[in-house]
Each structure stands twice: as structure tokens, then as C-alpha cells.
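Now for a typical sample entry:
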Amino acid sequence: MSTTISFIDDTSPNITYSNGWSNGGGPDEFNSTTHGTTIAGSQASYTFKGSFIEVFGTIGRENNANPNFAPISTYTIDNNLDTAVTFTGTIGSITLYKQLLYTSTVLDESQPHTLVITYTTAGKNPLWLDYFRVTDTPIITTTSSTQTTLFPTTVSVVDDTSPDITYSNGWLNGGSSDEFNSTTHGAVTAGAQASYTFKGSFIEVFGTIGRENNGDPSFAATSTYTIDNNLDTAVTFTGVIGSTNLYKQLLYSSNVLDESQPHTLVITYTTADKNPLWLDYFRVSDTPITTTTTSSIASIPTAQPSHATSQSSRLSPGTIAGIAVGSCAALLLVVVIVLLLRSLNTRESRSRDEVPQTQRRTSWFNRLWHSQPPPPPPEIHPFNPHTEMSNYSHSLGPSIAHQYQAPSSGSSPSFGVDAPAYHLAQTTGSGYVTRGGRPDQKRPLPNAPTSLG
């Protein structure tokens, strides 16, 4: 079985909203819709089946982007207070779209779960909900009596400047205050690669999508992502250019991996004469899965088709063919024996009618039984399987606009690991910075073309 990822828009009828919510939305949001609230205690609930759930939303710049007005919300699963997580948004220098507000721990995907979101504070900026992402990753065990124990997810954030990331030629350094650790790496040469070896259950790649080439969508960068040089894992991603530079966007998310083994992610910038591909950071999640029985082994299936051969109780095609041929030969031998015996029996009966009663004891069959020398047997034409069987054969709500404030010239607070900014896996960024490059770029890209023609 494979991993299934479902996106649930904020307008889904399966989401229940309490009083205090209003409709909103803009072109940079999923399906151009959001739900927002400024009423303390307002709730949204959603029941689902899956191994974990993520909540994405928009962090605006209301109240002049004062960080003291950042919205605060809590998230619980199945009304269990032990699962409660509180999230405070980090206000950026611009409105931040498709931001990750919450990620659950690993859940039992065979049971339904209910997520409840609560806006907890009054007098703050609105909490804008955009969409949910539910991942269904079945956990398979080899016995029906196995009890599976799930442990909390450990998340590691790896900056683009990490010495563990290997860059080929064709990459440049960049960065701004809205990017993780204020750094990025940009690819401008087709075929440029970055590789990273890690241990974990899955990995995500985040980057910046700029507005080079005047925001022309035809210049969106395209990149591919593979795990362990397995072409079956290859994912191609093309960015969606927004109305502003988009920071901390989710460019790639792997399928679930065997966290006990090392894996290597290879990122390739595949297009020439496009916007640059800006890498910001990786996020590696380590979710170990164990079992409580002594004989069973739990495993997480990946979403990639496996070509590994495995032994099973099934017979191979060669063995089946051998059995079929052997069975036919045995059946043929039985038929020959039966026909021979019937032929002998018929002739014996005829000879008995012609022999006197006193001599019948010494018939051919009786003499054979008593080991006496038999008389010359009658002339018999034996069954010839090659002749007789030569032809034998067989075969197998009311809408309101976001009241976001215009970007200020000040720097945003530094990005924290607890509130990474995400984008729907539908974006990239790469190309040349002429004709309206990123205003936040630390250094211009060399040898940029001066015209599209």
C-alpha cells in the first residue's frame, strides 16, 4: 500500500465552523479562499482518517505588523488535552501565504480522528485558515496480534548553508531577512544539482519563489527530486509565481521512508533561461515505528513501487510447467496400462471358452501366476503412445477581503523552527534576475540576459 495525500480546502462542507468566522481569500491562497476569525473561543473542527494532519494558513500584517498582535491558536486531536499544541504566528515583512500552522504526531490511520482548532486570544490579528493536508500512510505488521506503538515525530531543520549539503557548479549564494537564517542557494544553470544524505521517515524541501522576469509565469523554474537514485521516486516541480516574492515555500515532500536506513536526496535544476531555483532549508522528520510482539516486524510501506524480489510460497512458472508435464506423462502411462490389461483380459476370456474345463487352470494368466512357463502368448498389437497419442496436446459564506497592511521597510522577526513557513507543493523559483529581480537579493546574478528575445 502507498502513501496518499489529500488536500481539504477551508470551504469543505466537512469542516464545521462555530460562530465568529468570516470568509476571505486572495489569488495567492489555495483555491483563492480562506476562513478568518478574531473572536476568542471561535473553533473549527474536522473529522478524518489518516496517519497525520497538517494545517496551513495565512499570516497577515494587520495592526501595522506589530508582532505583539500575532494570532494565537491551539490544536487538539480527539479532545485529548495531552495532544494540545499552541501556535503563535511570526509576522513577516510581507503577508505570508500557505504557512504551516500545525502538524500532528503520527496517528492510528485505521481509526477516525477529530481535529479541533481554537482561536484563543482577543484583540489580536485574525487567524486565517487556508487548507488541511491529510497523509494516509498505512502501517503493516506481519501478524494480526501485533500491537503497534507510535512515537512522537522528531523534526530537524537543515539550513541551505549546511556543510552536509553538496552543491555542484552553477549555484550562487543569496538570502534576505525573510528567509531561514537569512540565506539561500540559487541555481541558474540547467543540470545544477544539490544532494543531501540523511536518516528519517521523510524529508521536505523549502525555498523562495521570486518574481524575476517581471513575474512572467512562463519563467517559473522547474526542478526534479529523487531519493536514492531511484527513478521511480522522481518528482518534477514547477513553481507558481505570486504577486510578491514567496518565502519558505514547500517545493518537495518525499513519500514515507525507512527511517533506519540512510537516504540521499538529489535536487536537479532542469530548465535553462528560467528564474533561479532558490533553496532555503530542508526539514527531516524522524518517526520511528516499533511493535510490542517478539515475532512480528512492523514496516512502513513507501509510495514508490518496489522492484525487489521476494520469496513466497507461490510456485514459479517453470515449476508449474514441470508439474503439468509430469502429470500428463503419468496419466498417459495409466491409460497405456489400462488398455493393455483390457486387451489381455479380452483375449484370455476368449481362450477360456475354447479350452476344456480340466485345462483351464493352466491358462496363460494362471500359469504366469504360478510361475510356470507360459505358452506362446496370442499375437497382440500393443498400444503405441507415439502413434495413438500423436495428436495429443495441451495449453495454460459571504466573502470579505483580507485587511493586510502594506509591507514595511523593517526586517521581520527571525524564522523559528516551531513555525516554518510553507507553500503548497506546487511552486519553485529559478531563472534570471533582470527585468525586475528580487529586491531583497543580496547580490545580483552574473551574466543575466538583458532581454527575453
User: Anything to note?
Assistant: The first strand starts at residue 4 and ends at 9. Residues 317-354 form the longest helix (38 residues). Residues 254 and 356 are 95 Å apart (CA to CA).
